[in-house]
Each structure stands twice: as structure tokens, then as C-alpha cells.
Design goal:
InterPro entries: G6P_DH, G6P_DH_AS, G6P_DH_C, G6P_DH_NAD-bd, NAD(P)-bd_dom_sf. One of its GO terms (cellular component) is cytosol. Belongs to the glucose-6-phosphate dehydrogenase family. Its EC number is 1.1.1.49. It is an enzyme of class 1 (oxidoreductase). By secondary structure, the chain is of the alpha/beta class. The chain is built from 13 helices and twelve strands. The strands form two sheets. The protein has a nine-stranded mixed β-sheet. Strands 1-2-3 form a three-stranded parallel β-sheet, with helices on one face. Strand 1, helix 4 and strand 2 form a beta-alpha-beta unit. The longest helix is centred in the middle third of the chain and has 26 residues. Bound molecules: 6-O-phosphono-beta-D-glucopyranose (BG6). 6-O-phosphono-beta-D-glucopyranose binds next to helix 8.
Length: 431
């Protein structure tokens, strides 16, 4: 690419004013080279150094971020090239790594070892872009700054927790990539498990990044590997004029059993959560696009109002961020019946003059500020894999695990309702 091609490509979606765009272009440049060629790396280093010098950056103040938005097969060679030729000994270096971080415990540990030999843990930022989403960042604030939540946040009051990820698009055109990963590796072992750890962790001793990450690791360590009995797997088939998963031309294995849908129940074996099912549901090619956290509370003991549905706290991550509580109210008027209503904080209605940053926008800023809070630490990653690896290996190796089909554009496998009922979820106020 030429510099012009590059600028056009990276700015085509930028909606800011012409002025801001011009400023952005003035500080953005493109330098091409080969991953496996030392001379390319040296010339990159020279190019960056000259740019720093031009901006009056003295030796010792060099501050470099290397962002590996690359195929995982080149993570290691590129990190080596950077370390050998571009890394500044007397400055600051930060390496951002995109997922996938391996395919299971063993491959992730191997990758970790190789990167760890080149960069310190403090220099590495493993991105999980869900941690940059506004509502995910809000989980801690909600839990630990509101007395009415902090006091009822346990097995005594909470019946079950559901974390749902739904997409309307299938894997058309990227089936070749997706087939090696499946929905569990693509969004559950990382994005949804990160959300779960924020909901379930104990209160950190401070808001420092290591304090937060310590608590996330601790709670993840209380989760045993997911049992196949707690998994419902599905794959979409052609419907409504849309192709099935197996119809994708980019798919090598036309008999693939890779799940595009899964509902998984995780159990946290600690004093706070023993016996509370955490149900994660994720799928492609479904009826709606949404991501939400739904906390369903227990029935009111000895309730005077039989049939009044359970309370729920819902945090809608996307689209249109919102927090709402489903609660029961007297039906207005002469009746003494109950009616369920919402205490609703919809961001777009309430925070009208506030811009909610894109997840990546906020995470890249965190890197520049050297804040690791919203990045995945090495021990956290290892623990996350330990929860998923045994099930993933069974899915990859066993052909007798049921794989339910569902039509493109539907709610998912028909077996889903029975699956969630098994864990006590009361659908009477579901929407
Ligand atoms: C990515 C997955 O990490 O997250 C994609 O690889 C998925 O398959 C995407 O579509 C979802 O991200 P978002 O921000 O659109 O919810």
C-alpha cells in the first residue's frame, strides 16, 4: 500500500470533523516491510526513531506501543522482530496482543512462554474488547457503590445469572476461520467469561488494576471445568433464504461439527455462589442481536402476592446500553393486583449529551495510560482455559455429543427452553 491508500483505508469510517480528520492524518503514517526480514525491522526502527526525533522526543523518553492485530501464527515471529530491532532499552515498550491466545491450555501456555521470554507481563496487554464496553465497565461501579446491590449479591438472594450474546449474522465468508474455533473459543472462553468474573468476583481491596485482576483470578479458580452435561450445543441450518453453516464455501470440512451456538452452565464453588447456576448463551445467525446480563432473584419468601414474578436486574450491554430492574407494583387504579414494571435507566434517554466511546477507543487509551485493569493477565488466561479446555477437547474428539440444529434467524435450538428450566430459570417474565 502507499501512504495515501493506507490513510484512505484507516479513515474511511471516521465520522469526526474534517479538521480532526486532517490532524489525525498528519500524525499517521505507513511503513511497509516483511515480518521475517531483519532489514525491514531495522528500517522500521529507523523510521520511528526519525519521527520521534522530529517531534523532539529525547532518548530515554521514547514511548512505543506495538499493536499485534495479526494472525496468531505470526504473533511470535513479529514479537521477536520487534524485540530485536525496535524495542527501546531506555524507554517504554508496550505490546498489545489480540485474541486468539491459543486454542487450549497447552497452546496458550506455549504462546505465553514465548511472549514471556521477550516481554515482561507489565509490557503485555492482552485485549478482550468486551472489557472496554461501557456496560461491562459499569458492573464494578454498580456492584460496589450501591448498598442495595452489594447486600443482596449472593446465593441467598440470587437464583441464577444469565449472560447472553446473540448475533443475527452467521459466519458467511469467514467459516474457514470460525471452523477452527467455534462459538466457545470465539466469544465464550474470553468475552463472556470476563463478564462473568466481574459479576462474581469478591470486592477488590482497591480499584488498582492488580487488585481487580487478583479477584478475577480468584473467582475463576473456584470454577471447575464445564461438564458436557451442562452444555447444549447447536449449529445453524439454512432457513429464510439464508445459507446454513455447512453451506459456506470457505468451510474446508463440509461435515464440520463445530458449534455456532452454545448454552453452558458454570458453577462457582465458593461461599457466595455455591448452587447458583451461571448460564452463558451465545450464538450466531439468531433472531435478534443483543448482549445482556440478566440476574434473576429468588422468589419472595411467604409472598402475599402469589404469582408475582421474580425480580430481575438486567444490564444491556448492546445495542443501546441500559440498566433496568423488573419489579412488581400495585396495578394503578381500583385493582389490588400486581403488575410488573421496569425501573429503567436507558442511557440514550438519560445521558443525552454524553458520547459513549467504542470499546477499542477506551482500551487503547488505557494502554497509553499504562492501565492494565481492563486487560487479561497471564494467570487469568490460564485459569480461563482450564475451565474450557476439557469440554473443548471433548467437542473436538467425540462424535456422540449431541449437536442440535436450529434454523438461521431463530431463537436457537428448540431444546434451549428445557435446558434453562433445568437450572430453575423462571421464564414467566422473560422477553
Ligand atoms: C469477536 C468475535 O471477538 O467478537 C466475533 O471473533 C464476534 O465473532 C465479535 O462477532 C462480537 O463483538 P461485538 O463488539 O460486535 O459484540
Amino acid at each position: 500500500m502507499t501512504q495515501e491508500d493506507y490513510l484512505e483505508r484507516v479513515t474511511q469510517y471516521i465520522k469526526d470533523s474534517e479538521d480532526e480528520l486532517a490532524q489525525f492524518k498528519a500524525i499517521t503514517s505507513y511503513h511497509s516491510g516483511q515480518y521475517d526480514d531483519d532489514a525491514s525491522w531495522k528500517s522500521l526502527n529507523q523510521y520511528v526513531t526519525e519521527n520521534e526525533d522530529k517531534r523532539g522526543c529525547a532518548p530515554g523518553q521514547r514511548n512505543r506501543v506495538y499493536y499485534m492485530a495479526l494472525p496468531p501464527s505470526v504473533f511470535v515471529p513479529v514479537s521477536k522482530g520487534v524485540k530485536k530491532n525496535v524495542y527501546v532499552q531506555d524507554g517504554v515498550n508496550r505490546l498489545i496482543v489480540e485474541k486468539p491466545f491459543g486454542m487450549d491450555t497447552a497452546s496458550s501456555n506455549e504462546l505465553g512462554k514465548e511472549l514471556g521470554a521477550l516481554f515482561t507481563e507489565n509490557e503485555i496487554y492482552r485485549i478482550d474488547h468486551y472489557l472496554g464496553k461501557e456496560m461491562v465497565k459499569n458492573v464494578m461501579t454498580m456492584r460496589f457503590s450501591n448498598i442495595f446491590f452489594s447486600q443482596i449479591w449472593d446465593r441467598k438472594y440470587i437464583d441464577n445469572v444469565q449472560i447472553t450474546f446473540k448475533e443475527t449474522i452467521g459466519t458467511e465468508g469467514r467459516g474457514g476461520y470460525f471452523d477452527d474455533f467455534g462459538i466457545l473459543r470465539d466469544v465464550m472462553q474470553n468475552h463472556l467469561l470476563q463478564v462473568l468474573s466481574l459479576i462474581a468476583m469478591e470486592r477488590p481491596i482497591s480499584t488498582e488494576s492488580e487488585a481487580i485482576r487478583d479477584e478475577k483470578v480468584k473467582v475463576l479458580k473456584c470454577i471447575p471445568p464445564i461438564s458436557p452435561d451442562d452444555a447444549l450445543l447447536g449449529q445453524y441450518v439454512a432457513a429464510n433464504g439464508k445459507p446454513g453453516y455447512l453451506d459456506d464455501d470457505t468451510l474446508k470440512n463440509k461435515k464440520s461439527r463445530t458449534p455456532t451456538y452454545a448454552a453452558l452452565t458454570l458453577w462457582i464453588q465458593n461461599e457466595r455462589w455455591e448452587g447458583v447456576p451461571f448460564i452463558m448463551k451465545a450464538g450466531k445467525a439468531l433472531d435478534t442481536a443483543k448482549v445482556e446480563i440478566r440476574i434473576q432473584f429468588r422468589n419472595v419468601a411467604g409472598s402475599l402476592y402469589k404469582g408475582a414474578p421474580r425480580n430481575e436486574l438486567v444490564m444491556r450491554v448492546q445495542p443501546r446500553e441500559a440498566v433496568y430492574i423488573k419489579f412488581n407494583n400495585k396495578q394503578p387504579g381500583l385493582s389490588y393486583g400486581t403488575i410488573q414494571s421496569d425501573l429503567d435507566l436507558s442511557y440514550h434517554d438519560r445521558f443525552t449529551d454524553m458520547k459513549i466511546p467504542d470499546a477499542y477507543e477506551s482500551l487503547i487509551l488505557d494502554v497509553l495510560r499504562n492501565d492494565h485493569s481492563n486487560f487479561v493477565r497471564d494467570d487469568e488466561l490460564e485459569t480461563a482455559w482450564s475451565i474450557f479446555t476439557p469440554l473443548l477437547h471433548q467437542i473436538d474428539q467425540r462424535t456422540d455429543l449431541p449437536l442440535h440444529t436450529y434454523p438461521y434467524g431463530s431463537r436457537g435450538p428448540a431444546e434451549l427452553d428445557a435446558f434453562v428450566r433445568k437450572y430453575g430459570y423462571d421464564r414467566s417474565n422473560a422477553n
